[in-house]
Amino acid sequence: MAKTVAYFYDPDVGNFHYGAGHPMKPHRLALTHSLVLHYGLYKKMIVFKPYQASQHDMCRFHSEDYIDFLQRVSPNNMQGFTKSLNAFNVGDDCPVFPGLFEFCSRYTGASLQGATQLNNKICDIAINWAGGLHHAKKFEASGFCYVNDIVIGILELLKYHPRVLYIDIDIHHGDGVQEAFYLTDRVMTVSFHKYGNYFFPGTGDMYEVGAESGRYYCLNVPLRDGIDDQSYKHLFQPVINQVVDYYQPTCIVLQCGADSLGCDRLGCFNLSIRGHGECVEYVKSFNIPLLVLGGGGYTVRNVARCW
């Protein structure tokens, strides 16, 4: 049976700039959308211009102080926020740039709306390539991520779904999502990532398994440099098969960071676009409602082709 796919795209989201020389380039979203149009993929999906998330939406996970700061800070007034910039880890990797809060509002709103549509059975698969910013924490920014749209989307899904499975194939460990749901069995987190040699964020070894009610509902698959399609597939498919069989999720959230591709500016894996896509296809084959999100990816032309 053909699946109904909802695709969320905000025409303005690609116009934000983290600043000169910064590896995160929202422009990749406009390139991705251009391919969606020119390949005619939009004909197979329902295309939505997404809702913009409010401060209230963001505070479902983040602290009010932190979200209030994101809303108020700008390149023109940041001198007056020195203490807050340090406290909230905003500055180097996570710079203050024009329209910062609006950018967060746009990518978070799309993930939230995707979750709502899955809850209401409007679609079987919801896609938001602007989302997947998995490093953001309750009280701080981290690793190019300010607002954790994934956690906010999962909290929405939990209103209707007893068990949500989160799968992360970005090269970096999905630390922000893991931390948010570390103590609960309502969300199982599974992350495949590079681990070791001080690789960011430095977390995600095999012994991080969850705690309290969430003990053994957190699974990390730490990997070394250079993993290729074949090796990745031989790990990914049996692990995910076992997890789905055991956990019986009623909804899946898949973070598709494209920095696990070969030739990524910040990555060191060797996946092809086909190998990356096969992971997504495999998750889709379970016929469980699916929220598909973006994430990392720093060689822009490859990110757009991948997504």
TrEMBL record:
Keywords: Chromatin regulator, Hydrolase, Metal-binding, Nucleus, Repressor, Transcription, Transcription regulation. GO terms for molecular function: histone deacetylase activity, hydrolytic mechanism; metal ion binding. It is found in: Nucleus. Substrate binds at residues 93, 143, 298. This is Histone deacetylase 3. Belongs to the histone deacetylase family. HD type 1 subfamily. GO terms for cellular component: nucleus. Coiled coil: none annotated. The gene is Hdac3. It comes from Agelaius phoeniceus (Red-winged blackbird). PANTHER family: HISTONE DEACETYLASE 3, HISTONE DEACETYLASE HDAC1-RELATED. The active site is at residue 135. InterPro entries: HDAC_I/II, HDACs, His_deacetylse_dom, His_deacetylse_dom_sf, Ureohydrolase_dom_sf. It is an enzyme of class 3 (hydrolase). A divalent metal cation binds at residues 170, 172, 259. Residues 22-307 form the Histone deacetylase domain.
